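Forwarding these from the shared drive since the link keeps breaking.
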Amino acid sequence: QPPAGPWQVAMGGREQEVQIPVGDGGYIDAIVSVQRSPVVVIALHPWGPLGGCMHDPHPTTVCQVFGRAGCSTCRLDFRSGLGSGASSVADVRAAAAWFTEPQGGAEPAATQVLVIGYSYGSVIGAAAAAEIPQCVGFAMLAPPLGFGWALYMFNSSGLLARASDSAGKPKCILLGTQDQFCSEDTLMRFYQGLPEPKKYVSLQDVDHFRLYPRLARELSSWIAEAYGVADLQAFARGGAPRRPAGA
């Protein structure tokens, strides 16, 4: 019997499989870690029809990095990768609500949400961030902007427009110089339209599938800069300040 809420998950950083309800009566499969932190980090996977899932090394690495620091974490399987992306955005909202809304009379397990998506999940996460009131920032890892028309059924522009609704919310984009699905020119056109605060990191000689060895260093650096904290452990303990650094 999967845990019905976050406080039924064993504490201490150990991951556990759960099923999280979605508003339409369905559910998503997820692996979560619940810790005494104001922050939950939701990590999103690449396109499911090509084999993407929550066991991909990118969301797995994100959860390992932030989990070791003391944050709660969640990686999930999207119910579907087909269509406009709306159902995937709903999946992210459901995961955030599972952590941030009171359940069974208990206090929420988290009060702040950080969304970090890879490939297909990067655009979904950035769009979902605009719809999650508790979201304090998001990161996009290798966004496949050159193929958005195919992955999101010609709705990539709509999803990216929602990502732009992020003034005052720290955001970070990582892209390898050898990425097969997004050129730096395409990325920069999108990046220049995003409001501050923001950070773009170009990873030399890295392709679309090999960002994960660089994530601990790059994400740790971004968190320290964006939120004015000493390190990830400090972020896990105190969360984001009301006004992030540079906002």
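-- next protein --
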Amino acid sequence: NSAPGVALCLVCAMNIAVTSLYFDPKRAIAGAGGGGAAHQQRQGGVASAAAAAAAAPSGPPPLRLGIFTCYVCFFGTNLSVASLETVTPVVVQRLFGWGPCLDPATCPFEPAQTYVDLLMTTGGLLSLCMSVNMAVWLGAKVYGREIAALTFALIVYVITNASNVDWFGSLPAWRFTAGYLLGAFFGALMRGPNISLLSQIIGPHPKAQYMGKLFAVGAVPRIIGPFLYVKMLQIPESIQSADFPHVYEGPVPRTWLLY
């Protein structure tokens, strides 16, 4: 079913159109008047002053190592998100038999058919809770301590990834579920402090090009992540087979690098 992809394509096209229409600096400056010549002159003076300030930033240049570190952290965050969104349904289907029937017309209803939807929905709600928390309370507490927040979130990623490795040839459902939910919850903790830290490193210099590169770097793992992680589920070769009636029959994936 390619309908979700078509819908997202239309949404992205609408975003491009709206951005081009409403965020053109030249058009905004030219159309900001409307109140007479004096108003336009004041607006022109403000615009000229802003342009002069932007053209001659003060202070030392941004620390390249700091900018590179922010880019790497943002890349890793989005790679983890790609894993959460892509690999989770595949793993739970092939390891635990969760998910919809291959042929609903011949499949009796079982509670496990709803587990994937419940898991993904719960993960999305946890991510939303952390985002709201960052916006209304935790963001102010983290400000000035961005490195500590990023370090904590990365440690959580390491722990969840280690817990999801099938060290002894098996992975319990409770451990996988806990790792997924932790990853979804603390994933939102990475984005805000990362962008805040990058903004502070840039300082008084124009930030648009740095922020643009940040989001371009973050888009790469969202593209390559699904292909990469699904391939990794086949390395090393499976040592077990599964037979879940109406859901999946075949080799059990090896989990070693999920989040």
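The longest strand covers residues 241-244. The longest helix spans residues 64-96.

- D.
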